[in-house]
Write a structure and sequence with these properties.
The chain is an all-alpha fold and 148 residues long. The protein folds into two domains: 31 residues; 102 residues. It has six helices and two strands. A two-stranded parallel ribbon has the order 1-2. It binds heme C.
């Protein structure tokens, strides 16, 4: 009666392995491939971030402060998306009263500043201003930065 024994064992095995599989899929779905360039590897320069900060002060501070772009909300909106996504949403919608008014270089510096306020490390290479370059950088928020 080999077959009969097999039939009894099978549902038990499936019951154990299915939840394990679901868990495994969940964790891989969010994981960033180790080969990807992420914002934790130093994708902007300090100089660029300070430039971004002064543009932000002039153009954005009237309606925003850092807490709009940090913490759990930033993580939820931007984690695992690309630098291009963030760049492009700002470029096409901000400043709210005159979208697209700044040169690409300025938008890029602002994004660098936002990475800085999210405690992402600076590096030696500036954040690109072209779409192709920006698309290669994955935003990785390790721990939400506490709102100030
Ligand atoms: C005149 C007011 C005003 C100015 C100036 C302004 N913003 Fe905004 N911004 C808003 C409003 C209102 C929203 C929310 C609107 C929405 O969610 O569609 C917003 C939303 C945003 C978002 C969130 C978009 C998203 O979907 O996550 C970002 C990022 C942002 N602004 C960045 C900037 C930056 C950078 C600047 C400066 C270049 C700027 N804003 C200037 C009013 C403004």
């Amino acid at each position: 009666m080999r077959l009969r024994r097999f039939l009894i064992v099978l549902p038990v095995v499936t019951a154990i392995s299915v939840p394990a599989l679901v868990l495994a899929q969940d964790s891989t779905a969010k994981a960033v491939p180790s080969s990807a360039l992420t914002t934790l590897t130093g994708v902007y320069t300090d100089q660029q971030a300070s430039r971004g900060e002064s543009i932000y002060r002039n153009m954005c501070l009237a309606c925003h402060d850092d807490s709009d772009h940090t913490g759990a909300v930033f993580k939820q909106n931007w984690d695992t998306r690309t630098a291009f996504d963030l760049f492009e949403i700002i470029r096409t919608t901000m400043p709210n009263d005159d979208p697209g008014r700044l040169p690409r270089e300025d938008y890029s510096s602002i994004v660098a500043y936002l990475f800085k306020v999210n405690k992402m490390p600076s590096g030696k290479k500036p954040l690109p201003t072209d779409s192709t370059g920006l698309k290669q950088i994955v935003i990785a928020v390790s721990d939400p930065v506490k709102q100030r």
